[in-house]
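FORM 7B: Structural annotation worksheet

SECTION A. Query
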Amino acid sequence: MTIVGSASQTISINTNNYTADQGVTPSNAVCKYNGGTEHACTTANFTGVAAPDTGKTLLLGVEINSNGTQTDNMTVAPTFDVVVIYN
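SECTION B. Predicted structure
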C-alpha cells in the first residue's frame, strides 16, 4: 500500500484487532516501510519513521493459521487493522 500525507510530520505504524474467521486466524504482521528493513509491525519498531509526503510504500506480510476445518473452495475473511498515526 502507499501512504500519502504530511511532508514534515513523522508517523508511527502498527497492526492490531486480529480477527479470525471460520477457523482461520491472522497474526504476527511484519512491515517494510519506504524500502527499509522488515520488522514486526509494532509501534516499537515503527515510531517516528519518515513523513510520507507524496507517497511511501508500506509492504505487509501476515502469518495465517488454520484449524483444519476448512473445505475446498471455502471463502474466509480473517481481518486485521493497519494503524498509521502522525507524531
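SECTION C. Observations
Residues 2-66+81-86 form one domain. The chain has a mean pLDDT of 95.

SECTION D. Sign-off
Analyst initials: ____
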